[in-house]
């Protein structure tokens, strides 16, 4: 049972670090920690001990709550990224509207004396 508790405790600590990275906007580091957390949970389930299932309830509830926090933060970051992309697209459209007014007219250039 101690192995299972150690794996769950390590998964909980990894999840908290993952949440910290998500809050900081460090997506790549959070992804690596999420994979590590998944691996630790798989290892905990492989150490199945039917008598100890009831004792692990608190750890599993903490992990479930942490997963909820991670999901909320990931969705917030996704919405923020989507908003930024939409804003960039609108800015690009706005700036492309100026393209026709800024381009030099080649017909006028032919008649200008460039020598002075």
Structural account:
The chain is mostly helical and 116 residues long. It has one domain. 80% of the residues lie in helices and 0% in strands. The protein has helices at 2-24, 27-46, 57-97, 99-102, 106-110. Helix 1 (2-24) packs antiparallel against helix 2 and helix 1 packs parallel to helix 3 (57-97). The longest helix is centred in the middle third of the chain and has 41 residues, at 57-97. It is rod-shaped. 11% of the residues are buried. The mean pLDDT is 81. This is Flagellar protein FliT.
Descriptive labels:
116 residues, mainly alpha, 5 helices, rod-shaped
Structural class by helix and strand composition: mainly alpha
Mean pLDDT: 81
The succession of helices and strands, N to C, reads: HHHHH
Number of helices: 5
Shape: rod-shaped
- Uncertain stretches of 5 or more adjacent residues: none
Provide the number of structural domains. 1
Which strand-content bin applies to the residues?
A: under 5%
Rg on CA atoms, Å: 28 Å
Total DSSP E strands: 0
Task: Give helix % range.
Answer: over 70%
**Terminal Cα separation, in Å?**
91 Å
Largest beta-sheet details: none
Protein name: Flagellar protein FliT
Keywords: Coiled coil
Coiled coil: 71-98
């Amino acid at each position: 049972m101690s192995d299972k508790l150690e794996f769950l405790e390590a998964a909980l600590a990894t999840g908290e670090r993952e949440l910290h990275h998500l809050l900081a906007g460090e997506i790549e580091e959070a992804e690596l920690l999420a994979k590590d957390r998944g691996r630790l949970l798989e290892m905990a389930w492989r150490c199945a001990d039917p008598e100890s299932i009831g004792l692990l309830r608190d750890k599993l509830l903490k992990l479930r709550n942490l997963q909820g926090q991670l999901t909320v933060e990931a969705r917030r970051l996704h919405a923020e990224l989507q908003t930024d992309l939409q804003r960039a697209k609108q800015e690009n459209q706005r700036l492309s509207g100026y393209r026709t007014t800024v381009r030099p007219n080649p017909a006028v250039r032919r008649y200008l004396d460039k020598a002075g």
